[in-house]
Write a structure and sequence with these properties.
heterodimer; A: five-stranded parallel sheet; B: mainly alpha; two-stranded antiparallel ribbon; 7 strands; about 70% helix; rod-shaped
């Protein structure tokens, strides 16, 4: 049961923290910092789950989700968005763009793990 | 029996006598030797008696024989006016003199803004109204001739030729004595004296016949009264509405008839004469009407049924064989007719000539662009031709109507026609709100109704088709001429007068209220209504300087003090005069008028200048009142303008402030959002790793150390961020206190490089040229060092060269010290060069540990120090220049 996640996050310390958490939970983590190439990376990797930062260099997280959803076979891919900007409007825009779950930084590790597990379970059932 | 020859001779002799009297009076007047009695109130009173025409002389008896005492109303109206309304007439006379009025048309036109349209309308109305009246006089002369002709079978006579010669003779008389002077406003002493003489003749004639009838025929007063009681005259019922209507008509006509206006206003020598006339003229009327009833009663008794009662004054003496008395009576009638015709023709001709012929002629002349210098001959000719034309009109009207209608009926129609002028006249005298439009509308309505309900039905003879008379215009029964709006059963005269006068007055008032008078109308209105306030006493214009002072005062009120004074000063310079004010030369007045007309309009300016400079009898106070009114309006409107400009400026300011506030609010939101983002990011790492350290059981020591290190680093990052924020906040609020010290640039750079590179493992070579860094600085050197440290640290962080190098060089130019920091990296992209100095701006994708506040702080600091920091594009790598005001020379 190879659970695979692609993580796009430009803050190295946060990437390291998430990688640590998920790998201990049995995921293989593929981490990238660049927003511009993110869509291709995700498409090529074909992960079970995507974790995205909202503010990325090159391309914003929202744009990445929109482009991703436009691709074939990517409509149901669970996307967890992490952002340091936690305003209501950002959340609404994210949901509109096709984000599956929206999470505000700073988060607790338990929250992230729960969210990742939930999303994966839902996707599996669906 | 007197033969027609004798009669004709007596007529000629009488007319010749009149000619002589008129000629003599004119001569005396032109020589300035006119006797006192010629200027007396007596002459004035007697000349008013042209009110009593042949209609009164012959017709009153006929009227009494037909309708009993109703004829009294014809005398009652004017008597009431003279006794009860002499003050109104005095105002009319005062205005007539102060405005140099030539006729009633001129008066109305003058009052309503010198409107020629109105004058022409009034003239036409007067001609239409008075022509039947003139023909009535001709008819009475003819009738009286006929009476004598019947009694003289030896000689046949031609009625038409008599009327023709009478008309021609009267025309010649009117032309000779009525148009001697060009100035229609001047008194016609000859005519007035002749008219006064005729007044005596007709009064004497009627009194003589009356005395003869009472004492010669009836045999005393008692018997006469008994006869009257026995006759049907005593039994006539008095019809209240007819009495009131005809009294009113007579009163209105007394004021409005052109010939009455001529003798009462134009020919008035002294307005004090009115006071005498106010009782003397009613007395004259009483005398002339005293024997009307006895003559009528005796005539009805003596003469066979069917004889014309209009001619009783003549036929009763004839029947009694009193040739001499009959001749006197004939002369009385002749006098009444001729005086009326002459004055009426004169008055009408002035109106026709001034308001119809001359305007048309002048327009034709203009079209041909050949205006001759002297129009004097043209004016005289036009007035003479007008007299002839009016007489001809009367003559033809007599011909057409066939002389059928009873005298009194024609008289009443004529009265009702001219009475239409009354609302506009009285309104103009007493109501400043009366306007030209109101006068025109009221006159038109009144005139139309009078024409439709009175004149046309009376003319008959196919002028008004039978079916209209019976069924109304367009078959609408409520438009029947003698039962307008379905009101039936009224006496036709009462009906016509009621409708025409009431609608005339109502329309006049309503339209006046709804329309706005022109400036000239306002000015004239004020002069008319308040004529007594400012025309009393002689004019005060004695010298040209006084005149110019008044012009100055008026101009100041219109133009404003500064502008008026400047204008007068300019004019004085132009004239080269030495006095304080310019001479009122025509050129100066013209320029002043142009200046004023820019403010208050051409008409008002013209009128005002004309009134002051022309010395006419309008008081300065009145002019100034108008000027004040104008000035107030101008001031008010300029105040409004200023207020509205102020308001719109305030609104613009508010809008700008609002935009700025909105912008600031948006900046604040963005700033907070960015601060929040910058705080959350390190906190996320801290939280995540502290949880890992707490929860994850089997971490090796290396991992533990590493994660604790991350937490430590992120904590430092937070601290830095908070420090930067506080620093920026202090700088931006301007509350920073500078610690100014003296040092050299090289010292500051030494300190900055050391501080920036200390404890850093990233290799950056800093190239300096110490020999060029000897500039002495007087500034907050710690703050300056902070800027340098920031710039060096930036190069350290962002220079992407293999072997990063930073060269620092200093130079002096344009009074400023420049310190340049060039690195050998790829530099800042062109599109980002402007925004790098903004807060939280970050170009490179790498975090590099900063929050993006460094350059913003640098710029704030440099601005506090009186310098700046900027990016220099085009140097390959990153290139920043710090500039400072040069405080001192290069230290040697």
């Amino acid at each position: 049961m190879g659970r695979h996640v692609v993580l796009i996050e430009d803050e190295p310390n946060i990437t390291e923290a998430i990688r640590f958490l998920l790998m201990r939970d049995g995921w293989s983590v593929d981490a990238h910092t660049d927003g511009a190439t993110a869509v291709e990376v995700i498409r090529d990797a074909g992960p079970d789950l995507v974790i995205l930062d909202l503010m990325l260099p090159g391309k914003s997280g929202l744009e990445i989700v929109r482009e991703l959803r436009a691709l074939e076979g990517m409509q149901a891919l669970p996307v967890l968005m992490l952002t340091a900007r936690g305003q209501m409007r950002d959340r609404e825009m994210a949901e509109k763009a096709g984000v599956t779950r929206f999470m505000t930084k700073p988060f607790s590790n338990a929250e992230v793990l729960t969210a990742v597990r939930d999303l994966h379970a839902q996707a599996g059932q669906g | 029996m007197a033969s027609l020859n004798v009669l004709a001779f007596v007529c000629l002799a009488y007319v010749a006598f009149l000619f002589f009297i008129a000629f003599w009076a004119d001569r005396m007047a032109t020589r300035g030797k006119s006797a006192a009695w010629m200027r007396s109130p007596l002459i004035y009173t007697l000349s008013l008696s042209i009110y009593c025409t042949a209609w009164t002389f012959y017709g009153a008896v006929g009227y009494a024989a037909r309708s009993g005492l109703e004829f009294v109303t014809i005398y009652l109206g004017p008597s009431l006016v003279m006794i009860c309304w002499w003050w109104g007439l005095r105002k009319l006379v005062r205005i007539g003199r102060s405005q140099r009025i030539t006729s009633i048309a001129d008066l109305l036109s003058s009052r309503y803004g010198k409107s020629n349209l109105l004058a022409a309308g009034v003239t036409i109305l007067a001609v239409i109204g008075v022509t039947p009246y003139i023909s009535l006089q001709l008819q009475s002369v003819t009738l009286s001739f006929a009476i004598f002709a019947e009694a003289d079978p030896l000689r046949g006579y031609n009625e038409t030729s008599i009327v023709f010669w009478v008309a021609a003779g009267l025309a010649v008389f009117a032309i000779l004595f009525g148009t001697r002077n060009l100035n229609a406003n001047e008194r016609h002493h000859g005519v007035v004296t002749a008219v006064a003489l005729e007044a005596i003749v007709k009064l004497a004639a009627l009194l003589a016949v009356g005395v003869f009838v009472v004492w010669g025929i009836a045999g005393g007063i008692g018997e006469t009264l008994a006869r009257i009681d026995a006759s049907q005259i005593g039994q006539w019922n008095v019809d209240g509405s007819r009495w009131a209507t005809i009294t009113f008509l007579a009163a209105a006509a007394f004021i409005c008839l052109p010939r009455m206006f001529q003798v009462m206003v134009v020919e008035n020598e002294d307005e004090r004469h009115l006071r005498i006339a106010s009782w003397a003229f009613p007395l004259y009327l009483l005398l002339i009407s005293m024997f009307v009833v006895p003559i009528a009663v005796v005539g009805l008794d003596l003469l066979p049924a069917g004889s014309n009662p209009d001619m009783f004054v003549l036929t009763v003496p004839l029947q009694q064989g009193q040739q001499g008395l009959a001749m006197l009576s004939f002369l009385g009638g002749f006098s009444s007719a001729t005086s009326m015709v002459i004055v009426a023709a004169m008055a009408l001709s002035t109106m026709v000539s001034n308001h119809i012929v001359m305007p048309v002629w002048l327009r034709l002349q203009n079209r041909q662009a050949s205006v001759s210098g002297d129009v004097r001959d043209v004016v005289l000719l036009s007035r003479r031709v007008s007299i002839a034309a009016i007489m001809a009109l009367g003559y033809f009207y007599y011909h057409l109507s066939g002389g059928a209608a009873a005298l009194a009926a024609i008289g009443l129609i004529s009265f009702a026609g001219v009475a239409q002028l009354l609302p506009a006249l009285v309104g103009g005298l007493f109501w400043r709100g009366a306007t030209r439009s109101g006068a025109l509308a009221g006159l038109t309505v009144g005139f139309a109704i009078w024409l439709y309900t009175m004149l046309l039905p009376a003319l008959g003879g196919g002028l008004l088709p039978e079916h209209i008379l019976r069924y109304g215009l367009f078959g609408l029964s409520w438009l029947r001429p003698e039962a307008l709006f379905g009101i039936e059963g009224l006496d036709p005269t009462v009906h016509a007068v009621m409708w025409s006068m009431s609608l005339n007055a109502i329309v006049f008032c309503l339209v006046s209220l709804m329309s706005f008078p022109s400036p000239l109308e306002r000015l004239q209105g004020a002069q008319f209504v308040n004529v007594f306030d400012h025309s009393a006493g002689p004019r005060g214009w004695t010298g040209s300087v006084a005149q110019c002072e008044d012009l100055m005062i008026m101009s100041q009120r219109i133009l404003g003090a500064t502008e008026a004074q400047a204008f007068f000063q300019r004019e004085r310079m132009r004239q080269g005069g030495r006095g304080p004010l310019p001479e009122p030369t025509p050129a100066f007045l013209e320029r002043l008028e142009r200046e004023l007309s820019a403010s208050i309009g051409a008409a008002a300016a013209h009128a005002m200048i004309g009134q002051i400079a022309g010395g006419s009898s309008v008081s300065v106070a009145d002019l100034l009142a108008v000027a004040d009114e104008t000035a107030q309006m101008l001031e008010y409107s300029s105040r409004l303008e200023a207020q509205s400009a102020e308001l719109s400026a305030t609104a613009r300011k508010l809008r700008e402030t609002n935009e700025k506030l909105t912008q600031i609010s948006e900046q604040k939101d963005a700033f907070l959002s960015q601060v929040s983002h910058e705080l959350r990011t390190p906190m996320t790492s801290i939280r995540a790793f502290s949880e890992i350290l707490r929860d994850a059981g089997q971490l090796d020591a290396q991992e533990q150390r590493r994660y604790a290190g991350i937490i430590h680093d992120e904590t430092l990052r937070l601290t830095r961020l908070l420090n930067d924020l506080l620093d920026l906040s202090v700088l931006e609020s301007g509350q920073v206190s500078l610690n100014i010290t003296v040092g050299t640039l090289s010292e500051v750079l030494d300190h900055a490089v050391a501080a920036a590179l200390a404890g850093s493992d990233q290799p950056l070579r800093v190239r300096r040229r110490p020999e060029a860094e000897g500039f002495r600085l007087t500034s907050d050197l710690d703050r300056l060092a902070q800027v340098f440290i920031n710039l060096i640290a930036n190069a350290q962080k962002y220079c992407d060269a293999e072997q990063p190098e930073l060269s620092v060089s200093a130079s002096m130019s344009g009074g400023r010290l420049h310190v340049d920091f060039f690195d050998n990296g790829s530099g800042v992209p062109a599109d980002a060069q402007q925004m790098i100095f903004e807060k939280f701006a970050r170009v490179s994708p790498e975090r590099a540990g900063g929050a993006g506040l460094g350059l913003a702080i640098c710029r704030e600091v440099m601005q506090r120090l009186g310098g700046d920091v900027s990016y220099l594009p085009g140097h390959g790598g990153g290139a920043f220049r710090v500039s400072l005001p040069a405080a001192g020379e290069k230290a040697a």
